[in-house]
Amino acid sequence: DTEVTQTPKHLVMGMTNKKSLKCEQHMGHRAMYWYKQKAKKPPELMFVYSYEKLSINESVPSRFSPECPNSSLLNLHLHALQPEDSALYLCASSQTDRHSNQPQHFGDGTRLSIL
Amino acid sequence: AQKVTQAQTEISVVEKEDVTLDCVYETRDTTYYLFWYKQPPSGELVFLIRRNSFDEQNEISGRYSWNFQKSTSSFNFTITASQVVDSAVYFCALSGYKKLTFGTGTRLTIIP
């Protein structure tokens, strides 16, 4: 079983809806990540949170809004998404983002479909 | 700029055969880390191994083995006596400042 838990596992939403993806880890990790993965492609980094502060935003459109309420939780708020935003959204965590030797541990992902 | 190349897009082998997945990387860093991840159909990326640039010792874990050759910038992954449960997409990744650079992945299918 994964130590990074993501909910929901599947989400279908219309382009005008507002929804949130949730991610939780209890490994004491202080870095958390959001990735987007299209079919047959590698994961693409969206956001990095380090010690609950936004560390990296990879020029993601503002219709994606991340939030890190505490060191164990990471949310991704979605609003006015486009059909091309349909993808697998993966959350990951690592002990820290300050040392490149730390492996990232991934959740199962949320499969998002935009109608 | 960093780059990871996994030239094999898809590989199919019959169960119990050995299979090697290739990974070639480019980096200007003198210290770096390489990773392999497995992604089964369920979606989760499973961390398999980490190797630092100063350690060229090959590693074996059960049926899995990794061959790191700095001279050719390669970090290949071999599965011995493959099993159906090994069917997945495998990603090689290279560490950078706060980021991982992933290869495009190799889809491995083990035929029963």
Which pair of chains has the greatest number of interface residues, and how are they split between the two chains? A-B, 25 and 24 residues
Sheet with most strands of chain B: 6 strands, mixed
Strand % of chain B is over 45%
Helix share, percent of chain A: under 10%
Q: Shape of chain B, please?
A: globular
- Helicity of chain B, in percent? under 10%
What is the number of helical segments of chain B per DSSP (H or I, 4+ residues)?
0
| Secondary-structure content class of chain A | mainly beta
Number of strands of chain A: 11
The quaternary organization reads as: heterodimer
Distance between the termini of chain B: 41 Å
Query: How many strand units of chain B?
Result: 12
Radius of gyration of chain A: 13 Å
Q: What is the tally of helical segments of chain A? A: 0
Largest sheet of chain A: 7 strands, mixed
* Helix/strand order of chain B, N-terminal first: EEEEEEEEEEEE
Mean pLDDT across all amino acids of chain B: 93
Query: Which percent range describes the beta-strand content of chain A?
Result: over 45%
Q: What is the global morphology of chain A?
A: globular
Low-confidence stretches of chain B: none
Give your account of this protein's structure.
The complex is a heterodimer of chains A (115) and B (112). Chain A is built from no helices and eleven strands. By secondary structure, chain A is mostly beta strands. In chain A, the strands form two sheets. In chain A, strands 2, 4, 5, 6, 9, 10 and 11 form a seven-stranded mixed β-sheet that branches. A four-stranded antiparallel β-sheet of chain A has the order 1-3-8-7, with no helix packed on it. The N and C termini of chain A lie far apart (31 Å). The model of chain A has no long low-confidence stretch (mean pLDDT 93). In chain B, strands 2, 5, 6, 10, 11 and 12 form a six-stranded mixed β-sheet that branches. A four-stranded antiparallel β-sheet of chain B has the order 3-9-8-7, with no helix packed on it. Chain B is mostly beta strands and 112 residues long. Chain B is globular. In chain B, 0% of the residues lie in helices and 54% in strands. Chain B contains no helices and twelve strands. Chain A binds chain B through residues 2, 40-43, 45, 48, 50, 55-56, 88, 90, 92, 97-98, 100-101, 103-109, 111, and chain B through 32-33, 35, 37, 42-47, 50, 52, 91, 95-100, 102-105, 107.
